Amino acid sequence: MTTPIRALCAALAAASLATGCTLAPNFQLPGLPVPSAWTTASADVAGAPAAELSWRDYFADPRLREIIDLALANNRDLRVAALNIERARAMYRIQRADILPAFDAAGGQNAQRVPGNVSPTGDATISRQYSATVGASWELDFFGRIRSLSDQALENYLATAEARRSAQISLVSAVAYAWLALGADHELLDLARRTFDTQQKSVELIRRSFDAGAASALDLAQARTAMERARADRARYTAQFTRDQNALALLTGAPVPEALQATALADALATVADLPAGIPSEVLVRRPDVLQAEHTLRAANANIGAARAAFFPRIALTGGAGTASLTLDDLFDAGTGTWTFAPQITIPIFHAGALKANLDRAEIERDIQVAQYEKAVQSAFREVADALADRATIAEQLDARRELVKAANESYRLSEARYRSGLDSHLILLDAQRSQYAAEQELIATRLTEAGNRVELYKVLGGGWK
User: Fold this and answer.
1) Neighbours of 411 (CB within 10 A)
2) Are 40 and 180 within one domain?
3) Residue 224: which domain range?
4) What pLDDT is attached to residue 51?
5) Between vectors from CA 233 to CA 231 and to CA 235, what angle results, nearest 5°?
6) N or C terminus of the chain with fewer C-beta within 10 Å?
7) Backbone φ, ψ for residue 53 (5° rounding)
8) Over 80: is that where the pLDDT of 19 sits?
9) Taking the model in full, what pTM does it have?
10) Confidence of residue 17 (pLDDT cuts 50, 70, 90)
11) What pLDDT is attached to residue 433?
């Protein structure tokens, strides 16, 4: 290695020892602006926290697992989130590269023709010069401007990674709920079909009785009203079932095979496990959206360091070493060595307050991110608290709906017996049928609510990304 190149490398190495500091403020994470306990006490349930529980362990039905796998592989929103991570990683690598020297090699030829009328000899001449150089350029980061920008890019990358985790949790829970809703709509459609068939048979019986003079026109009209209501419900639930299939296909990014669709909510309910809620400080700090807000806050804090460093001088080193010759054959001969060294310092003197305004902007952005972080924590707390509030009463609601169905079935049985015995009018029987039908619909809806609550609780507690 030639002496100039050795000198250049030694200068770069010595300068590297002087860099590494940053003017960013010491980072302090704000305290959790939420109560130390949930408003509604959660049930004592043994098991792992949601954040440590894989969705494969939480959703046991193999059909649902396969659909979630399909969604994770094909959902376009999740694909965009993954690509955003790669973009943020590339931006971090670009910013990180500015910390180190940049080396370039160059070779060239310079040819020039001088006409005879300006040549000292009176003859036209052509001169050529060949060169080959290796150059280096580096900004000495004495005040941490580049390092602060690199830290900012790193935190933005980590925030993007958490955003992807949050998107996956939302996707898993959305697929699970859509699958459960499809099972519930399948039950509602079956119920509407059975009710319509029953009401249709009832209308035929009453029509024959009416033709024989044993039933009134009012009885026939009331029976037809109940039948048409069931027919309308059948059409409505058929459309709803198709919409749910379309929604599930959109979430998965591909058509869902019929064999994987839920055919009944009763079977699906047993596949959704229960889990403990824990305490806020343990739960909230594990949620990806809260972690994303934290990394965004750290990025804003690092940006203050870069804004502060802009007040101080910037020192750049540029140098090169190589050879030069008038002929290509002599380019690498002894005595053809060349070198350049051009250090430069830039000292800010007057920028009409732009540097101070830039620092103020960075500090305000940090304060905004503090508020955004606290809001993310509060929103997460509310989501968990709401899910726990529903969970605290859903078992009682479900039990009440089951008892209501039993009572409605018994009422219908007794009303039918009294009607056949001539003790009650057909209107009372129809009222009992409507009550029975409504009670069964409400039971299915409540069971879906209970299953959906367990899915929602798993989501808001930070599970579903592993």
Assistant:
1) 17
2) yes
3) 31-99+141-312+353-460
4) 77
5) 70
6) N
7) -105, 120
8) no
9) 0.82
10) very low
11) 87
